[in-house]
Structures are given as C-alpha cells and as structure tokens.
Amino acid sequence: MKGRNHRKQILLFSIAVMLPSLILIFLTIRMIGQEKELAQKRMVEERRRIANEIGQHILVRLENIKLQETTAAANWDNFPAIIDYENPEVVILGRIDGRQLVLPWEKNQELEKNRRLLSQSQFTQKIRQGERAEFVEKNLSRAANLYTQTMNSAKEPVQKGYARLLLARSLFKSNKKKEAASHYRGILELPYNVSDEYGIPLSLYAAGRLLEIGESTGDVLNSIREKLNDKYWLAPAAIYLIQDLLERMNDNAMDDLLQKTVENCAQDVQIYIQKMDQALALQSDYLSLGLMTNQGSRIDKTQPQWVYFGELSWLVSVSSSLSERPPFLVIVDAQKILASLRSDDGFAATFPADFDFIASSDLDGLNLGPNFKDAKISFDANQEEMFPDPWRIQPVFYWLALFLILGITLFGAYILWRDVRREVQMAEMRSQFVSSVSHELKTPLTAIRMFAETLRLGRSKDKKTKEEYLDTIVNESQRLTRLLNNVLDFSKIEQGKRTYRPESASLYGIIRSAARAMEYPLNQQGFKLNIQTEEGLPEVQVDRDAIEQALLNLLHNAMKYSGDSREIELRLRKENNSALIQVMDGGIGIELQEKSRIFEKFYRIPSPENERIVGTGLGLALVSHIVKEHKGHIKVESNPGKGSTFSIYLPLEGES
C-alpha cells in the first residue's frame, strides 16, 4: 500500500515538473515558428522591393537604348540589314509592318535592289539565252560567249557577278577548270551585299565550287570569316550554306591549325543560327506577346512594356512611331544588359548580390515590376550581402533562453526528485527498520522471559540446566544491549552528538573481549571462531568500546550471512603503517554492484536470502562511522557464494 502511495507521489511529481516544461517547449517552438514566418515574410517583401528597384534600373537602361536606336533608325533611307547597332546590347532591330514583324534580312534596301537588278528584262533575256545554249543546245562554248557578253555589258556589280558565276560554271563543264577557278576566285572577293534574289551572297556559290575543285581552301575560309564579321545580317539560306561549307572543310582539313580555325568559325555560325532561329520563333509568336493591340497601337503609351522571350534571354519592346515611319521592335540581350549594369560601380555597390534573368514559369523568381512581362530575376545562393538575415541569430537566443530555463528547471527537478526518492527510500528503510528492530527486540525478550519464568517456578532442579538458562538470559540480554546500543549510537550520529573518547589501548585486548562476548552465541549456533594475531603491535589511540562494538557488529553479520559455512576468522596484523583487523566468513557473499551501498544506513541487499535474515541495516553504517572517526578506513572483498572479508585499517600510534 505504501509503495503504491509512493508511486502515486512520484507520478504526480513528474507531471508537475514535466507538464510545465512541455508547455514551455511548445510555446517556445510556436513563438520561434511565428518569428521565423514573420522573418521570411519580411525577407520576401524585401526581396520584392529590391527586385522592383533593379527592374527600374534595367527599365531606364532599356528605354535609353530604345530611344537611341529608334532615333538612329529615323535617319535611315531604307530598312538596312545591319548588325552593328548604336548599343552593343541590341541583338536585332525589327520593323513592324501592320500586324507582322519583318526581320532585317527579309526586306532591306540591298536585297530589294539586287532583286530588281536581276529581274531587269534585258539582263534576264541575255541570261536565258546563255542557259538555253548551256542546257538545251548543250553548246557550252556558245553559252560561255553569251555569259561573257552579258558580264561585259552589265553595269551593276550584282549583274556582273551573276553572269560571271554562270560563265565559270560553263567553263567548269567544258573541263576548263583553271579558267573556271580563276573566275570563282574573282567572285569570292565580292562583298556580302552582292547576292541573288534569295539573299545568298554570290561569293558563297563560288566558295562551294572552289572546294569541289580542291583549290583555295584558305581563301574560302577567309572569305567566310569576313562574311561572319560583317556588320550585316545574312539570310537563313546563306548561313546554312556557310555551315555546310565549314563541315566540308572540316572533313577534308589536313592541317591542325586550319581545322582549329574551321571549328572556331563553326562555333560562331552555331551562335548565329541560334539567334536566327529564336528571331524566327519571335516572328511567329509576335502577336501572342501582347505588345500590340488589334489596331497596331501600343497597349499603354504611358507604361513601357518589355517582354522576356526565349532561351537566349531576350527582352523585347515596341518603339513609338517616329513621323510617318512604322514602329520598330527592339530586341535586347538581357545578359548584356546585366553585364552593363554590373560594370556601373554605383549599381554594384547598391546591389552586390549576383542575380540572373529567368523565365516567368520559374516559381522561385522575383517579378521586376509592371513594366516587365514574363521576366523574373533569381538571386544566387550567396545573398547575405544584399539580404542580411537577422533570423539566423534570433533562434540562437530563443534556444539558449529555453535551454537555460529548462536546465534550471530540470536541475531543480532533479535535486527535488533525488530528495523525494531519498525520502521515499528512507521511509521504506525506516519501515523495514522498525519491523526488524521489533522482531529483534521481541526475540531476546521472549527468550529472557521464558527462561526467567522457568527458573522462578522452579521447574528445573538440575544445577547445570539452571546455569544454561542463566547463560541464555545473560547472552540474550547482551544481544538486546548491542541492539539498543546500535540504535542509540545511530540516533546520536544522526543528531551529531556521538562522541568518542580515544585512549591508548591494545587491540589484542579488544579482540579478546569481542571474542568472549560472541563465544556463547557462536557455540549455540555451531560456529568456530579462528583468531590469528601478529605479535609486537603497538597500542593505538582508540575508543575501546566503539572499536569493540564495530567488531561485534562484523562478527554478528558474519554469523548471519555465513549460510552453511560454520567457520569465521578474526585476524589482527600490521600492514604498512596501519593495524589491520579482518573478519572473514565463507558465506553467501556480496554482488559487485552492491559493495558501494552496504555501508548506507538502513540499506539491506534486496535478495531472497536477505529477506529470510533479520536485520536493521545499521550495523555496517555504524562500523563505517566508527572507523572513519578513528582516522581509518574499511574495505570489503567479496565474491558471491565464496564469502566476504571486511578489513578495518587503523593508524598506529606514533607512525605516519
């Protein structure tokens, strides 16, 4: 019943301590979560604000570029196919023709002029005569003469070049390869704008023929490089023809340097094609971008609009119409815009974190503002310089405060738990002590009363029997006295009133006195006490009665815990500078983990054997106290089932 009450008290104590701690942890975690959520919201708002500021810087730069380009375009007599614009960030300047986007290589003044010259009736009539002689009549000589006459009579470079290209073809068919190669090399030197009606430069046709002949590979490569470095757009058919020529040269290249040059040109062509393909995709998707209304006017003239387009990161916007000219579509490389802004020291100081354009479909991006459509920016992983995060420090203080409070609480709870547990154990030990003392008091008192009444009634007439009864009464009285002395001495020790009166005494006499006191109970239970002493030990300063009481307690314990063994040894000898008293038995022994607790007050080893042995749990505690007060120490050696040895070390008088 008492154990159940103690368990209930411990449970209530645990609830009283753990419940507030759990509530505190819950509230702290909730507060940290709320603070983190607020910090994240503030961070998001700050990121949006900075993204809008960056958007304004980008918008100012883009609008300046658009104004410069459209102003320059206003001075054009016709729409040229130039690549070299006023600003290096501009990729293409397209023209808005109604609801269509016209790209530079589709309609420009050079292409229109070449188409007109090549379609003149007089020129086309002469060309047809030569082609009839070449393909119908199979008269290559007459065809060559007609092409030569046409070339000589032509006044425009494109007409001369076209006629010369046909002349070289007829010569090549006539197996006059050297003359044909000479004409092809002449045509190879023509500029880019001398092209056919499809916008393909005539020099590219000559380049292909020269590669077939196997001559002038270096000249062909130089011509292609010049075409790529020209500040004018080539038609898609022309650029794909260049790609084909480079592949042929790469396959037949015998020189490593030449092959490396070809590969570099091929990379430039690939970049060129990527731009051209994206421009064609933009042309196809132009109406879906929402830059123009059905009437062809800007959506909102007060708010400039830029649209992010394609994998090459283009920003696209329509300019305002100048005079009677149609508006332009300005296409800007977003990466070059960012590079231009980063080169500005003021911008780099204001926005030190690195960022990049991303598509609007990316959920992690930040909008640049209402002036940008489908355009977002994304900051890199290292954003500490632009976005200092105070939240990284705050949780540390929250957790430190929580751990400090919980630490103090749990430490206090541990101290209180230890005291409560100790009180519970002490209560159980006291209860057991009272029960044991009552039993030990009752046993000698019963024996004394029984034998005293027997003697009083005169039932025993035998003198020897009377002496045995009297010896029993004396022995039980001594046993009762030892028990009461233990209890009284322990009470004094608890109150701090136990005093010792040391005097010079011989340990031989103390051992003999203790042996005489235990002689009768040892004989009664069939024990044999073997005493071994070493001669020549000096006297020691001890309280004679206290040391004798300690020995009696050890001997009494040896009797109780000897089990089936009936031999006890009591030894006295000198060891180093101490007198060593040992009490040895061959009994049940002590487990290793219990050795450190057997000297605690009221403690008895919880085992089935001990439950059958009556005891108070005070004997060894008194022995330990007595020995310590005499500046000595006690040691126990024991093995379960093999007995125990208790050793008392007392300092010898006059020896350090």
State the secondary-structure class: alpha+beta
Overall number of strands: 16
The N- to C-terminal Cα distance equals: 54 Å
Residue stretches low in confidence (pLDDT < 50, at least 5 long) are 293-300
- Strand proportion, as a percent range, falls in 5-15%
Rg value: 58 Å
Describe this structure in words.
With 656 residues, the chain is of the alpha+beta class. The chain is built from 18 helices and 16 strands. A 6-stranded mixed sheet has the order 2-1-5-4-3-8, with helices on both faces. The protein has a 5-stranded mixed sheet with strand order 11-13-14-16-15, with helices on one face. A hairpin with a 3-residue loop joins β15 and β16.
Notable traits:
single chain; 3 domains; 656 residues; Heat Shock Protein 90; Serine Threonine Protein Phosphatase 5, Tetratricopeptide repeat; 6-stranded mixed β-sheet; alpha+beta; 5-stranded mixed β-sheet; 18 helices
Q: Quick gist of this model?
A:
By secondary structure, the chain is an alpha+beta fold.
Which helices and strands occur, and which strands form pairs?
Layout: H1 2-73, E1 90-97, E2 100-102, H2 109-118, H3 121-136, H4 140-153, H5 157-173, H6 177-188, H7 202-213, H8 217-229, H9 236-252, H10 256-285, E3 306-309, E4 314-318, E5 328-333, H11 334-342, H12 345-350, E6 355-359, E7 366-367, E8 372-373, E9 375-379, H13 394-457, H14 463-495, E10 503-505, H15 507-524, E11 528-533, E12 540-542, H16 544-560, E13 567-575, E14 578-585, H17 608-611, H18 619-629, E15 633-639, E16 643-651
Parallel strand pairs: 3-8, 11-13
Antiparallel strand pairs: 1-2, 1-5, 3-4, 4-5, 6-9, 7-9, 10-12, 13-14, 14-16, 15-16
Helix pairs in contact: 1-13, 3-4, 4-5, 5-6, 6-7, 7-8, 7-9, 8-10, 9-10, 13-14, 14-18, 15-16, 16-18
